Amino acid sequence: MRYVLRRLGLLVLTLWAAVTLNFVIPRLMPGSPTDAAIAKLAQNGPVTPAVQAAIEAQLGVPGGSWWNQYVDYLGNVLTLDFGVSYTFFPQQVSGLVAGALPWTLIMVGLVTVLAFVLGTLIGVGAAWRRGTWVDSLPTVGGSFLSAFPYFWTALLIVFFLGYVAGWFPTSGAYSATATPNLSWQFLGDALYHAALPAATILLTSLGGWILGMRNAMINTLGEDYVTFAEANGLRGRTVAVRYAARNAILPNLTGFGMALGGVVGGSLLVEQVFAYPGVGYLLYNAVTNQDFPLMQALFLMITVSVLVANFLVDILYGILDPRTRR
Amino acid sequence: MTRPSENSPGAAPDTGTALATTSPAATPSTTTPPAPPAPGRRTWLDTTAPGRALQVLGRAVATVWSNPKARAGLVILGVFVLMALLAPWLAPYDPHDDSFGRNEPGSAAHWLGTTGNGEDVLSQVIYGSRISLLVGLVAGGLSTVVAVVIGLSWGYLRGWGNDVVNFLVNLFLVMPGLPLMIIIAAYLQNGGLPMIILVVVITGWAWGARVLRSQTQSLRSRDFVTAAMFSGESAPRIIFREILPNMTSMIAGSFFGAATAAILSESGLSFLGLGDMATVSWGSMIFWAQNSMAILTGQWVLLFAPGLCIALLATAMTLVNFGVDGLSNPRLREGSGR
Prior knowledge:
- Chain A has 13 helices and no strands.
- By secondary structure, chain A is mainly alpha-helical.
- Chain B is mostly helical.
- The model of chain B is unreliable at 1-47 (pLDDT under 50).
- Classes of the chains: A mainly alpha, B mainly alpha.
């Protein structure tokens, strides 16, 4: 219990630091993001004093009091008020984020879980049959695939399966004629559009899980208790799964937790190539259009979700491996 | 990971084939035979003679070379290094020379064709290796140094300082790398290569520190560390002379990992159009190719060639890591003459 409380305290402290960091970054930058933002917003019509005050609270006033801005900013964050987007004027930032989140969560989230499960299983097999083709094929193939730049794999897949073969749609999350609803027809359409981005993420992330599990497993297989279990005449599969893999998976859980936290950030490069309307694509649009309110809100959200995931992994780790509790 | 018995001179099963870092130095010069066999007690850090250090380094390279995967990686890496060094002589044209026809297919004059701006693709690919290698070397090296110093101290020392470091590392770990890089790059328009390197280091060191810390924590409770503590050695000495040599392979591994990540980050930033667009790098080549709709015009070489180079370079680094893993962990060594 003390362990959990300590971690919880740390979480709160880190959350505060991340929020503060998000406040400090634009203010440390050369030039004035605020002026640029107001100039940009003025193109859409007159800027009211209220809007100007909101921007100044978010991005800083040159020469203004940091403390007052900070208090305003914290208030805005707590009420989830991130202001108005410049790119998609006059939509609220929070509304845009809420619209993009489900696409990312479902597509990237499912693929991440799938990649972890598959990669771990293959890694266990590779380590158990070390030195045979079961080992060398996935390790060499996996490390080659994970060395591919994400966006390049995506481009190749778009080119060959999208344009040349024409099997899959090359962009978007659903057909232009469809409207999002919960019918089977729409779900099928969405799945069809998610196939290529999902395949890209699976291909590029699988290798890391395979290698991580294989190496951890090889180390565990050398431990005395594994030799002892084998000497006791236990079946090979029992030794591999119940004795070795169970312990070898621990370090990989940390990575998995981080990856799950990262899901919220989406897969920026892949979403950009496929124009998939998720969080990553939204962030890309915000950055290329210098849409600072949207950028700040997305960055904060991504950071907070990674933080919370990290906290949960810490707790889980403490339960699974009592040695780390001290 | 490395149990004392594995590395101690007495229990070396594969004597002939290069027990690289630890035992060669340990056998002859140990003055006080320690009761528990202490791996890494006398290592390359202790050898004062440079000739000796070179010899040990040579053996380390030989160990890495003895792994077929790592050998392939070293060869590919070598080719890219030569390509970067000899770029002015190898490249047929200046990479910025846009006096040729636009979107030309491959020909005798332009083996890989020309870009939408009329530049020679092959020359750009050759010059692009310079940026990637530079970013990998500098950014990877810097983040490894930071990771080693922080990771080892953090794993060894206990007390309130531990919580402070834990807090800091967690903070850097949770800042999601790519989004943070992109945001800083968006504020610092045209910051150039130093900006990219700085951002890569800021976002890249924490992971290595965390990995090295957990290994330090597990080594910390080993007998040879306890012995060193009881013999009154100072904390920095125990950390950097007793524990660090046992982690040589992990540190080398984390360097290659960080360098790979740096190369991929640079290409990703350039691909999004956020890098230094004036320099020719593999990532910016793909950015321009996508901008000029190279896929639709059928000029897939424009996308394919630079991307393949990035993938090959990153793979080479990963392959080298297989051999590096075997440096201080004989269990991961392959073909060790048994």
